[in-house]
Structures are given as C-alpha cells and as structure tokens.
Automatic annotation (TrEMBL):
Histidine kinase domain: residues covered: 194-412
An example Gene Ontology molecular-function term: ATP binding
Coiled coil: none
Protein name (Swiss-Prot/TrEMBL): histidine kinase
Family matches, as PROSITE patterns: HIS_KIN
Enzyme Commission number(s) from the entry: 2.7.13.3
Catalytic function, reaction form: ATP + protein L-histidine = ADP + protein N-phospho-L-histidine
Amino acid sequence: MFHLFPTTHSVELKQLLSEFNRSLMLIADKQLLISNFLSKVNQITPVQGIFLFLPDENTEKYKMQGLEDKNVSYFMGRGKLVNWLAVNERPLVVSESSSLLSYFSEEERKLLSRLNAELVYPLNVMNRISGILVMGKKVNGKEFDKKELELLSLLFGQAAFAIEHASLYEIQRDRLKRMYRTDRLAVLGELAAGAAHEIKNPLTSIRSTIQYLSNDFDVESEKGQMMHELLNETERINKIVQGLLSFARPSELNSMEVNLEQLINQTLLLVNNTLKKQRIEVEFEYFTEQTTIMGDAEQLKQVCLNIILNAVEAMKENDESHPRTLYISMEEGTLIDVRSRYLLISFEDTGKGIDEEDIENVFNPFFTTKEEGTGLGLAICFGIINRHKGELEVRSTLGKGTCFTIKLPQHI
C-alpha cells in the first residue's frame, strides 16, 4: 500500500504512477474502472470519504456515481461551484475557503457539508470538467499539503482521460443498442402486420359462426357454457390482433401543445383507486418550470398509464417491510446542440425488479413476466415515444426496483 507521503524519490514516484496508470488501462468497464480508481486513491491517501461526480448524458448535472439516494446527490453543471472550478482550474480546499463558501449556492454548501468535504478536485479533459472528485478529511488528521496536491494532480489527470474514454464508449454502446432495438422492432412490426391481417379475416368468420350457433343452446347448459368460453377465447385473440395492429400500424400523431405535468396528474387520477387499494404512495417532483412539449396527448397518456400500471403490478408482492413507492420526476435536459432541449420523465418503483437477462427483451412484442397480458404494452409504448422523436429506456436492479425513463424533445 502506498501512502502519501513518503514517495519522495523520483523512482518511487514513477513506480506509483506506472502502477496507477496500468490499473486504469486494464479495465474497460466504466463502473469497474470507477470502483478501482476510488479504491486506489483511498489506498494512496486514506480519507474519511471519497465521491466521484460525472456529467449526466441527459441533464446538465454532475451526478454522484454509485449512489441511489434520490435526495441531493448532484452538482448543477452551470452552478457556481462548477463555474469556480472551471475558471480557477485548481482544487478547492474547503477548510481554507470559508469565505468562498458563501459564494456557492445553498444546495452546493449542503452537499459539501453532507459529504464532509475537505478537497474538491476538478477532473479536466480538453479544457472541460469531465468529473468532480470530492474527498473528505485525511484519516491521519493532517491537512493536504502542496506536494500531495501536485501528486494527486498527476494521478487524477490520467484517471480523467481513462474515465472519459470509458464514458464515451458506454454512450456509444447504448446508442447502438437503441438503434438496433428500433430497427428490430420495425422489422417485427412488418411481420406482425402481415400476421394480424391473415388472422383477422378468418377470426371474424369464426366469431360470427360461434355467435350464431350459440343461439341453439341454453346459456346454463354444458354446451351453452362451452360456446360462451369459445366466444371469450375468440375475443381474447381479437384483442391480441388489435394490439398487433396498434403496434405495427399505429395511428398518426395528433400533435398539439401538451402540458406533461397536467397529463401525468390526470393519469394518476385515473389509477388513484388502484394505487390506494395496493397501498402505493406516489412522489411526483418536477425540477423545471417548462413542462410543455408538442405531442399527442392521448398517446402519451397511454404510455404513462402503461408504465404506472406495470409499476403497480411489480409492487404487488412487496411485504410490509418493503416500501411501495412510485417516484416520478421531470426535469429539463439539453443535447450537445443547446437548441435541442427536451424533457426527461422518470418512473421508478420499489418492486421486485427485472432479471438482467430479460432487460433487453422488455420492449419486444409478446414478452411479459406477468401471468396475464399480451406482452404488447411496452412495445406499443416504445413505438409511440419513437414517433415523438424521443427515447424510452429501462434500468432495473433485481429486488430493488425498476426505472423507466422517457426523453421527449420539446418540439417534434
């Protein structure tokens, strides 16, 4: 284990840097890389806490990595702290900057206090802050000296490039996955349309014939009940066919100004009795005043309703010790082109979660983990969001819950 500082000789310093860089280069997975990086830093200079904040692809925030706390766990990308780090291009030593702290926002001061921050270090790549490292006080109680800060600067410079590379790789990989999924669903849609039309015509004849023949039997008789069951089954098949047609040949968008805050509240009102019956609490927060987009209100309501009902289904089996809470949040985001702004809506439940091997299939038609249902709901939702030039994503942890995230541009 290396400790700062008897690394006073250049040979020891080179060995330290070499081992540190090698440990970064051998890992391609972003989360493993971050975990290894934080562990190595804490070995080199043990501190009471160490936290990494990275820019979120969807929002103008630097979000804490590896933390599921829904409270204050981010720095605003255009906030005063990030601006100070960008302008000064040096770390902030909190204990030496008491007068400066008043310059930061209340939220920033609270987060620094919550983390017991002593050192706030910008990770710079190409004159841009690609991350923020927050370190607590040293375990030995001593302050960070100039030599330590210089060495940390060398270490963090290499780490910044490694993490940036891993982040870009992850973003590109996810984009390729989304493109592949969209293309795959388009092909499945064409196949589904053909199959639905082939089934629909004979099904109409079968249903008409059963209805005609059922008139010859008493409803209470055995044969009458059999006819009733046959009609129910043909109706079930008809619903599947209609679902296939909705998936393959969706209706045109009736684009108009839609207030998403109102739309979500209206949807929650529709399922209010169901939520109460299942003892599910809803926490709805929005972090933007701009909640209006151009879109099809009815189709977007269908998406929200489907996701909320799925969340209800996922939390049905929660026992008394496991909370039943649906967290809904809305915030504004921007793409690289600042003119391309969108709203980000997240629906996060505390249900049973989805197996990792099933995540890639949740938007496929006929895929379902429920005892009842056609498995077409999320496939249709994916198509609706795609036609709005948006994105629908899912992440889940088995035993903890699932989060569906909708990204919608403010203008189609």
